[in-house]
Amino acid sequence: MGRAAFVGAFVVFGGGWQAAVAQPSGADGRDFLYRVQQGDTLINLAERYMDGIDGWRVLQRRNRVADPYRLQPGSILRIPFDRIPVVRATAQVVFARDANSDGKPLQAGMKLAEDAQIDTGDKGAVTLAFDDGTRMTVPPGSHVALSRVRAFAHAGLIDVRVHVKQGEAESNVAPKKTGVGRYEISTPALVTGVRGTRFRVQASDSVSTSSVLEGQVTAQAGRRAQGIKAGFGVQASGGRLQRAALPAAPRLGAIPELVQTPCFRATWQPAKGAAAYRAAVARDSALTELGPYQSTQAPGANICGDEDGDYTLVVQSIDALGLTSVSATRVFTVRLHPEAPFTTEPANGKVYRSGEVAFAWASVSDAASYDMEVADAQSFASPLIRQHGIDVRLSKVLGAGTWWWRVRSVAPDGKTGPWSDALRFRLLDVPPESVPAAAVNAGNDGKLHAHWPALAPELTASGARTRVQLASESTFTKPIVDIVSEGSEAAMSKPPAGVYYIRTGVDLGDAASVIYSKPQRIDVGSFVGDSSRSPVQSGGGSLLLND
């Protein structure tokens, strides 16, 4: 979850016409619509748009104009498309992920010509830019054809037709307000013609929808056509159009500005008119680099990812017709790396003798060093020990009492990752001859203890669990241990001395979609003895022990 810069060209028009004036107003059937401005005549309009200055006579007949030199400002003039010369143009790929055109992988910077076929996989997406700044984003699971990609020869306006065979396309047409030529999105059941707007079209085998977010469109199914303004949408099925107001956009709840866990729970208030919701994450605030949508009937979704960066959460309401709301968005930042190490000892909640205490944790691949702290309060307001170094195992002398400890990774550039969970342990001043059985040094209980960051309560409430794997190789092709745990720690039988790797992932009920952390290395030496390979002990967890 790279950034892409917007590459739409700024068009400068000749003939004294200022690009900032939004005179061109889109298309209606076979005609280009132009809103008349002060000083316009049929002669200069024919010279600007048509294939010859004599086209003014066609305009006079078509629009029933009495005086070709006196036009009413603000009125709409129809110019036949078959008299407007066009040149071939291209669409530029400004973002692509897991998508292809005619079997070739798409990459940012590529140009697509007329008749190109675009396919996005289950996790793919593409954003295209046309010459007037219009952008079209094709989310995952879509098949789209560029049926026509051209531009008006004399005015620089685009003449584009896109066919959505399956899936969806969201368009932001002429965002620079320099006017609209022709921009149409068709589906097997619906044609949406645009007059400068932002809208979203969805298509399935039998039903198509168009949701208008800004401006207006003309929706046509068979011979039926309707003008649809912002805040409304239309469903087309069997040649019939059903118009309705869009559902209200969700009101997002508290979303953390800084996320330091692989997954978090995003929630929102139930929206009026919503039958369901869908959420996605984009890599930019313009929603150019849009990730897959996750549909849900509950007002909440689990958002997971493992790449640091700035993101935008996108949530939309969906009504019973399939119309979608304006997007509710929230920007957040992910900072996961270097990851917090898995801690092994002292184990959480265990009791040891006072004196020399061993601290150990896993080795993180992208960490250059580590910070370790020990305090007599969970707040770590005044740590007794602050240790910075490259070792993943060290000893410190501590007296009797209750203590907390934690560790974090430090990158080569000095950037620090999140702290591990604060672990509590107790030290007792007890002579060796009076130690009660299993009361002291319970960490040396023949088990290898591992602790990882706990999931947020709202995640566990939604059914999320932690999947933990231990393997003798970093590819995890044959894990020694594979568990699904409801907690944040496990005690497993000590494996033979050697190098091992451990990783965790958030399990949302589908093992194939678990997002795993980077493997961390554990060097099991003399301080971890031999034992038989017995099942892992994990509170509330289910066990999969692989041979």
Overall mean pLDDT score?
A: 85
Question: Which regions are unreliable across 5 or more consecutive residues at pLDDT < 50?
Answer: 1-22, 434-442, 526-547
- Tally of helical segments: 3
Q: Main sheet?
A: 16 strands, mixed
Instruction: Please identify the structural class as seen in this structure.
Output: mainly beta
Beta-sheet strand percentage?
over 45%
End-to-end Cα distance, whole Å, is 34 Å
What is the general shape?
Answer: elongated
Estimate the helix proportion, in percent: under 10%
How many DSSP-defined strands?
A: 44
Indicate the radius of gyration in whole angstroms.
Answer: 31 Å
InterPro entries: FecR, Ig-like_fold, LysM, LysM_dom_sf, UCP029644
Biased composition (Gly residues): 538-547
Domain LysM: 32-79
Pfam families: FecR, LysM
Detailed description of the structure:
4% of the residues lie in helices and 47% in strands. The chain has 547 residues and is mostly beta strands. The protein has a 16-stranded mixed sheet that branches. A hairpin with a 5-residue loop joins β10 (143-152) and β11. α1 packs across α2 (56-63). It starts with 23 loop residues before the first strand and ends with a strand. Mean pLDDT is 85; it is low at 1-22, 434-442 and 526-547.
Write the layout of secondary structure elements.
Layout (H helix, E strand, L loop, with lengths): L23 E5 L2 E5 L6 H8 L6 H8 L12 E5 L5 E3 L2 E11 L2 E2 L5 E2 L4 E13 L5 E4 L4 E10 L5 E15 L9 E5 L4 E4 L3 E6 L3 E8 L1 E6 L2 E6 L2 E6 L2 E6 L5 E2 L5 E2 L3 E7 L6 E7 L11 E3 L3 E5 L4 E10 L9 E7 L8 E3 L5 E3 L1 E7 L1 E2 L4 E7 L9 E5 L3 E6 L2 E10 L12 E6 L18 E5 L5 H5 L3 E7 L9 E5 L3 E5 L4 E10 L7 E2 L3 E5 L17 E3 L3
Parallel strand pairs: 11-12, 21-27, 29-36
Antiparallel strand pairs: 1-2, 2-3, 4-10, 5-6, 5-7, 5-8, 8-9, 8-10, 9-11, 10-11, 11-14, 12-13, 13-16, 14-15, 15-18, 16-17, 18-19, 20-22, 22-25, 23-24, 23-26, 26-27, 28-30, 30-34, 31-43, 32-33, 32-35, 35-36, 37-40, 38-39, 38-41, 39-44, 41-42, 41-43
Helix pairs in contact: 1-2
Pfam families: FecR, LysM
InterPro entries: FecR, Ig-like_fold, LysM, LysM_dom_sf, UCP029644
Organism: Ralstonia mannitolilytica
